[in-house]
From TrEMBL:
Pfam families: AAA, AAA_2. GO terms for molecular function: peptidase activity. Belongs to the ClpX chaperone family. HslU subfamily. Residues 49-357 form the AAA+ ATPase domain. Keywords: ATP-binding, Chaperone, Hydrolase, Nucleotide-binding, Protease. Residues 169-182 have a biased composition (Basic and acidic residues). It comes from Acetobacterium fimetarium. It comes from the Bacteria. Residues 160-182 are annotated as: Disordered. This is ATP-dependent protease ATPase subunit HslU. InterPro entries: AAA+_ATPase, ATP-dep_Clp_protease_ClpX, ATPase_AAA_core, Clp_ATPase_C, HslU, P-loop_NTPase. Residues 360-454 form the Clp ATPase C-terminal domain.
Length: 468
């Protein structure tokens, strides 16, 4: 974070998101303030809390993508929740505290993956030994046959057969050792990756027992392993897979054995408390129109339930109590019907930063297709390349695609940048279907091809018939 100044954060976001400069600046400052907080004197750290943000704008303009990329940039625990999934306490549905439990679980899983990467090489070495033991089971010479006591207990057996047996065992062990060395070399060179072997894997099964599941309450389920711990032995099941698949499964199991899960959980909870980001989408859908009856009552109830979470409280989880005081909450919504001022005043005060995002223009669509690292053009080119076809889309075709997407948003429902995928799917439908049959390596899409697929001119002529 020391190197991630607000300018650099915005520059990173610009690689994936076009426009929306005000929103990018707001989240960049929020991230930087988190780093600044860690540099404060100890007596001031607890006094500084994040300034939560509400992003206002139509669907598909980048609200979720900004929050997701921001969290990925700093490797912070991040979850996205839909405000409409929550209900007031006492009603059927998810309670608002479940978002904190989900965040903590995500944070612990992230820490666990990082710790497993640290022990990957050790786990890989252990797995290579396990695979070798499966291919050539290790069997040591029975040393007890060499002892005088063994000979004394078997006086009827002459010494010569005993020596012969020992010599035979030694020869077998030498042969086995040579075979293991040979196979170990082949494994290291990757020549046995497709060989089928049988391995034992952990059988997770269905350990969770739910009570009153119809109420859909997260707190009403528990894990038998959490209650009985090591009293219940880990069940195993056999699985027949190629060595390359077996290695992935076994490395994962071995890495989990090598890490300290108590430490992982402790770090995970701390990361969630200090750096967690919760993105609450469709927050405008829990705002009523001011009436005191019907669904508006329940919506206001959800707001009042969310309030203590955003304000700062302690939520009980299976990993212990978790404080929400220093988590960053980002709300988002179109706010077509309602306004931020329609929220209950207490909740408004907990989202002091409000940023409006602009609807996407035709030029924005061109920029999204041509200048973002995750553009739809690049994604579809890579997909078609798996069929050994090089998809080439000329610049004038890309501009025409952007124009079609913009016009469709104007004429139909405005779904923002998601419209580009709708247009691209239609454009490439025939190509995707026949890609495996193409003999030529290159397939070029120009403006005429785009025009022919969408028949824009013909459609406009038909529209003219109905214009007064």
């Amino acid at each position: 974070m020391k190197e991630l100044t607000p300018k650099k954060i915005v520059a990173e976001l610009n690689r994936y998101i076009i426009g929306q400069g005000a929103a990018k600046k707001a989240v960049a400052v929020a991230l930087r303030n988190r780093y600044r907080r860690t540099l404060l004197p100890p007596e001031l750290i607890d006094e500084f809390t994040p300034k939560n943000i509400i992003l206002v704008g139509p669907t598909g303009v980048g609200k979720t993508e900004i929050a997701r990329r921001m969290a990925k940039l700093i490797k912070a625990p991040f979850i996205k929740v839909e405000a409409t999934k929550f209900t007031e306490v006492g009603y059927v549905g998810r309670d608002v505290e479940s978002m904190i439990r989900d965040l903590v679980s995500t944070s612990i899983r992230n820490v666990q993956q990082e710790k497993m990467k640290e022990v990957y090489s050790e786990a890989e070495q252990n797995v290579n030994k396990i695979i070798l033991d499966i291919l050539v089971p290790s069997k040591k010479i029975k040393e007890t046959l060499k002892t005088p006591f063994d000979l004394f207990m078997k006086p009827s057996q002459p010494a010569a057969p005993v020596q012969a047996e020992l010599a035979g065992d030694a020869e077998k062990e030498q042969t086995r050792k040579e075979k293991r060395e040979s196979l170990a070399k082949e494994l290291a060179e990757g020549r046995l990756e497709d060989q089928i072997i049988e391995i034992e894997v952990d059988d997770d099964g269905s350990k969770t027992i739910g009570i009153m599941q119809g109420m859909n309450n997260d707190s009403m389920s528990f894990n038998m392993g959490d209650i009985f711990g090591d009293m219940l032995p880990q069940k195993k099941k056999k699985k027949t897979v190629p060595i390359k698949e077996a290695r992935k499964i076994l490395i994962n199991q071995e890495a989990q054995k090598l890490i300290d899960m108590d430490q992982v959980q402790e770090i995970g909870v701390k990361e969630a408390e200090q750096n967690g980001i919760i993105f609450i989408d469709e927050i405008d859908k829990i705002i009523g129109n001011g009436s005191n009856h019907g669904p508006d009552v329940s919506r206001e109830g959800v707001q009042r339930d969310i309030l203590p979470i955003v304000e700062g409280s302690t939520v009980n989880t299976k990993y212990g109590p978790v404080k929400t005081d220093y988590m960053l909450f980002i709300g988002a919504g179109a706010f077509h019907v309602s306004k931020i001022s329609d929220m209950i005043p207490e909740l408004q005060g907990r989202f002091p930063i409000n940023v409006s995002l602009d609807s996407l223009t035709e030029e924005d669509f061109i920029e999204i297709l041509m200048n973002t690292e995750n553009s739809a053009i690049k994604q579809y080119q890579e997909l078609i390349r798996t069929e050994d076809v090089n998809l080439i889309i000329e610049e004038d075709a890309i501009r025409h695609i952007a124009k079609i997407a913009f016009l469709q948003n104007e004429e139909e429902e405005n779904i923002g940048a998601r419209r580009l995928h709708t247009v691209m799917e239609k454009l490439l439908e025939e190509i995707s279907f026949y890609a495996s049959d193409y003999e030529q390596e290159d397939f070029v899409i120009n403006k005429d091809y785009v025009e022919r697929i969408f028949n824009i001119a013909e459609k406009r002529e038909n529209y003219q018939k109905y214009l007064l």
